[in-house]
Amino acid sequence: xxxxxxxxxxxxxxxxxxxxxxxxxxxxxxxxxxxxxxxxxxxxxxxxxxxxxxxxxxxxxxxxxxxxxxxxxxxxxxxxxxxxxxxxxxxxxxxxxxxxx
Length: 101
Hints:
Layout: E1 16-19, E2 31-34, H1 36-44, H2 52-61, H3 64-87
Antiparallel strand pairs: 1-2
């Protein structure tokens, strides 16, 4: 049996452990395997406006309650971006000291 990425379901040969379903910064202790690309996108890159088509696609396929969850996540992201902008220039990635390339 092969290991698969928790996000994209791709077979992972050399992956990373991703705190899921709660991020480590919010007390999460459980981890799931993720491919490096998905782990980078989930943890180290801020969402850009390119993500809006994916959001719209999810919206169209979602039920009422799922849309509420999507909306709340979208609003949290917008709030976080506003907080970052108020603090200064917004980075496109989050630095992770000591990460080996």
